[in-house]
Specification:
The chain is globular, with a radius of gyration of 21 Å. Helix 5 packs parallel to helix 6 (221-232), helix 6 (221-232) runs parallel beside helix 7 (249-261) and helix 10 (320-329) runs antiparallel to helix 11 (335-342). The protein is of the alpha/beta class and 409 residues long. The strands form 3 sheets. The chain has an 8-stranded parallel β-sheet. It has a 4-stranded mixed β-sheet with strand order 3-2-1-4, with no helix packed on it. A 4-stranded antiparallel β-sheet has the order 5-14-15-16. The longest helix has 18 residues, at 93-110. The chain starts with a strand and ends in a 13-residue tail after the last strand. Helix 7 links the parallel strand 11 and strand 12 (264-268). The protein folds into 2 domains: 4-52 and 355-405, Urease, subunit C, domain 1 (Roll); 54-349, Alpha-Beta Barrel (TIM Barrel), CATH 3.20.20.140. It is built from 13 helices and 16 strands.
């Protein structure tokens, strides 16, 4: 037998002992009833909330930590893309890798054991950034499961989709796991969706597209993706889907039903969408998709952090509890649902096996110093422990000393 986690509080409020065996949870028993094990093989989790490790279903590790390199004024999606082009021109492989490793270490410390990152493979960098992230994936394989999305924008004035197909093929050959792109940047977004679906289907890899990243309710590329997705024969994810949140209720229900029928997963990204979207016009619309309608229709929904400290979002903590908090504040989700969207639901979108404190589940776990899910989301306590495949990979302690903290647990 492996490690015994004693007196852990589950999200249900139950206090239990959790026995780990290799990379799985062997047993979950009432607190105090687990057989004795040597001291070196047990941890007392009194005061901690234990659950499925977080997963980050949508990051941009090639962009992270570049906010201070640009003029952050403007705040629109087009402004951010223009600013980031200057960053790209000066990027080096060593710089991309250093920033990605730093971000992954923060994500792991926050409790994430799986991350999907979108990485550009367009005309400025080609596959260089893909190769850099593949190297980082190998370097950090013991800490995190990293999925790499080969992300392509629309062709430039003299470019064609034949060139883009070659770039995507080269990115997959270099080690990317998923085909991605932003059809809205193409001269013909519908045709771009069709091309991306075809590339993913031919390669037999998942597809994850940036879709409808606008509050304009007339934009509904998601519906076209729903028509094509069943033909692909691969898992399909639509990230952002912001315009869905600006449509009238009847149309939202129709689109959500089509998305569910096509078995498309949706990833909502509150932080960056709240920052970039709704800056013009009145009333100011929230940059969020219709989470409730999608959920009611049976769509698999998860939430991610998206951009952090780059031209697309100058803030961010690389902590899924920040995403969960925004889901409560701006997305009107209750705390239990917000928690699920960054834990089990996020793992599901990434195609990962179930994890958490349940017998037979993979032992990817996070323990947060909190009495409840609501307290964890509200306070985002720094004290956390993280297990990946049964191994303790991160432990963050906070020194609560001094008169102001007397009497605390």
């Amino acid at each position: 037998m492996g490690t015994l986690l004693r007196h852990a509080r589950l999200v249900t409020g139950e206090v239990v002992d959790v026995q780990l065996d290799g990379d799985v949870v062997a047993a979950v028993l009432p607190a105090g009833t687990a057989p004795a094990v040597p001291d070196g093989q047990q941890l007392d989790l009194s005061g901690y909330l234990l659950d499925t490790a977080f997963a980050e279903p949508h990051a941009h590790l090639d962009k992270v930590f570049t906010a201070d390199r640009v003029d952050a004024r403007g705040g629109t999606l087009q402004d951010a893309m223009t600013q980031y082009e200057a960053v790209l021109r000066a990027a080096t492989d060593a710089d991309v890798q250093q920033r990605a490793r730093r971000a992954l270490r923060s994500l792991v410390a926050s409790g994430s054991t799986a991350v999907r990152t979108h990485v550009g493979c367009g005309r400025l960098l080609g596959v260089r950034a893909i190769e850099s992230l593949v190297a980082v994936r190998e370097q950090m394989a013991d800490l995190v499961d990293l999925q790499i999305v080969a992300h392509i924008g629309g062709p430039g004035p003299e470019e064609t989709w034949r060139q883009h197909r070659r770039r995507l093929a080269a990115a997959l050959d270099a080690g990317a796991d998923v085909v991605g792109g932003n059809p809205a940047l193409d001269r013909d977004p519908s045709a771009a969706v069709q091309e991306c679906v075809a590339v993913a289907a031919e390669a037999g890899v998942p597809l994850d597209l940036h879709i409808d990243e606008t509050t304009d309710p007339s934009v509904a590329t998601l519906r076209h993706l729903a028509q094509l997705a069943p033909q692909a024969g691969v898992p399909v994810t639509a990230s952002h889907c912001v315009s869905l949140g600006a449509m009238d209720a009847g149309l939202v229900a129709e689109v959500a039903a089509e998305v569910a029928e096509a078995n498309i997963a949706v990833v909502t990204l509150p932080a960056t969408n709240l920052y970039l979207q709704g800056r013009s016009g009145w009333p100011r619309l929230r940059g969020l998709t219709a989470v409730d309608a999608l959920t009611a229709a049976g769509v698999q929904v998860a939430a991610g952090g998206d951009n952090v400290r780059d031209p697309f979002n100058p803030v961010g903590r690389l902590d899924p509890l920040e995403t969960a908090s925004l889901l409560v504040l701006a997305g009107h989700q209750d705390t239990a649902r917000a928690w699920q969207l960054v834990t089990g639901a996020a793992r599901g979108v990434l195609g990962l096996p179930p994890a958490g404190p349940a017998a037979g589940a993979r032992a990817d776990l996070v323990a947060v110093r909190a009495d409840s899910v609501g307290e964890a989301i509200a306070l985002a306590p720094g004290e956390r422990m993280v297990w990946r495949a049964g191994q303790l990979i991160s432990r963050t302690a906070v020194d609560h000393s001094g008169p102001a903290h007397e009497g605390e647990r």
